Amino acid sequence: MTGAAFVIWLHGLAALLFCSAALVEARRPVRFAPRWLLLLALALSALWALGVAGIGDAEVPVRVTQAARNLAWIAVLFALAAGQGGNSGYRNGAYLATASCMVLAAAVSVLQPTLATGVQRAAAETTWRGLRLLSTTAALVLLHRHVADARDRMNGARQMLVAAIGIMWGSDLIVLALAHAASGWSEDLTILRGCATVLVAGSALVAVHRRADRSLRMSRGAAAQAILLIAGLLYVIAATAATGLLGRVGGEHARVVQAAFVFGTGAAVLTIVTTPWLRAWTKVMVAKHLFSHRYDYRAEWMRFTDTLGISGDDAPPLPHRIVQAVADLTASPAGLLLYATGEAMIAGPAWRWDEAPAAAAPAALDRYLRRTGRIVDIDACRIGEAPPEEIAALPAWLLAHDDAWAVVPLLRADTLVGAIVLARPPVTRALDWEDFDLLGAAGRQAASYLAEERAHAALADARRFDEFNRRFAFIMHDLKNLVSQTALVARNAERHADNPAFRADMIATLQDTSQRMTALLARLAQQGRATREEVQSVDLLQVALRLAAARRAQHAVEVSGPSLFALADRQALETMLGHLIQNAIEASAPTVPVRLRVVADASHAVIEVDDRGSGMSPAFLRDDLFRPFVSGKPAGFGLGAYEARQIAEQMGGSITVTSREGEGTCFRVALPIAPALEQAA
């Protein structure tokens, strides 16, 4: 092989590797440098290598591109060094001086062809090499400084990228020093730099392809890539003869034709290598011949759990992720989820499945999977090698689907949650014991996720029913109070029916009961929607007098205090006080009145509901008074005090309680005082 062929091949391969690194970075960017800056450096490196392969390294466009490449990598190094601390002014000045030297070298290379004499052009060439030596040396010093400052913080990917930059500038320094010592450039120096450039491009490709938190080690993927690399080298050897033949028959355009051939055939090979079928075939061959097990279980399980754990607003629903995660284990291109209903299996979400079947799977499949827990090899069922019961359990549409490959049951303990139908992988093969073990474990894990999702859905339904029951518990509590109030009026009517004053009180009580019953019916009709009015100025004394008059036929209620305005919802306030008055009446003896007192403190309007009943113990007052469904009365619901406190807090107020056993209880309701203007209105 001639020297020109070596130059073409080496730089063409380097250009291809740089392009591959740029594509990998564009798809999965590494976070140790700005993405666009790293892409620019890789693209300019590929363009420069392609220019050297096509037209040589002495041409002005190639030298300008080389200067642009160096500037881009200096910018990448500056981005890597950002945030390291130290003298930022000195660092910025050093980077600026190095970049200026690179720009000046590019300007000299552009000016050189315009000089009139050979002596001037030779002097310009010497100046260009001197500027390149100076800028490359400065760049290496900056790189060394960066490595020294960030040695303890550099991960594997960044180390590989920094090594690539160091190899690039180190090889430039060596060949420039040799050229300066020999007072001229030779093709051997271009070949030497080409070898280093291939190493740089390979290191950059590895750097952008690796995760930042993972050390370099041989794995199944690396083994597959090594096989592809060996095949690529064989391709290079085989195509070398073709390149030499093109050099002999290409005439004056031989170099351009050779460069186009190298880059074009390399791109074609790269396209073939990245096809899904070839990748799948390579993985199968590597697992079969180089490893004792088909799967890298750690890697597969990490990918499985990562797929299941995807979150975010744009994340697919959990059933879709489960199908995808199980399908990825065997490189299946599609999957279908079947839900177990106890009588049959119905089609659920699909992942890349052409179309979901309209018919459900028969109950026989449900019973068979529930009883055996076996993974069904559909190909074995098609050719009659599976047990007869297994063949009979499969639906006809599943056997007729040529791409259907396996059925994985989703078992949680002894409960069948569903099953996943997997499509045939790109490389057809028979299921073996490793497939059964891995898919069985994945199926049990997926079943637990599905069961947990169903449990969350059931919990949400239970919460909705709980809210529904809670609303009706409040309504039942109000109904109990109304029934108690009416029953007491009826008992008193037997003794005081002839008293005109009692009859008037009884009519007022019945009117109040009718109004409250109408309000309850409205709450039922609106199914729990809020019916309360907006907060407004309310005269507490007038509210207390009205409630006392409505309860007079039931029990004596005394009212005292001044006219005092508070900010409240009138209907809610009357409901709250009604609960407290009813509790006070039920705790009091028939002849002992309940007292309502309106008072004012510094910032609140207060109304107190006081009784001389049995009182409450300190433990009940502290732990149980405001708990729903806990009552000190045998037939109580335990909701009156609870709802009263909720209503008070919704209006910006509070309720405090003092009580002594055998002496009575006082509920103190504090509400915001209405402003003077609202009181006047």
UniProtKB/TrEMBL annotation:
Give the keywords, sorted. Answer: Kinase, Membrane, Phosphoprotein, Transferase, Transmembrane, Transmembrane helix
EC number(s) stated in the UniProt entry for this protein: 2.7.13.3
Q: Which PROSITE patterns match?
A: HIS_KIN (PS50109)
Report the domain of life of the source organism.
Bacteria
**Reactions accelerated catalytically:** ATP + protein L-histidine = ADP + protein N-phospho-L-histidine
Q: Which residue ranges does the record assign to the Histidine kinase domain?
A: 474-675
Q: Where are the transmembrane segments?
A: 6-24, 36-55, 67-86, 93-111, 131-148, 160-179, 191-209, 221-247, 259-278
Which CDD domains is this protein grouped with?
A: HATPase
Listed GO MF terms: protein histidine kinase activity
Q: What is this protein called?
A: histidine kinase
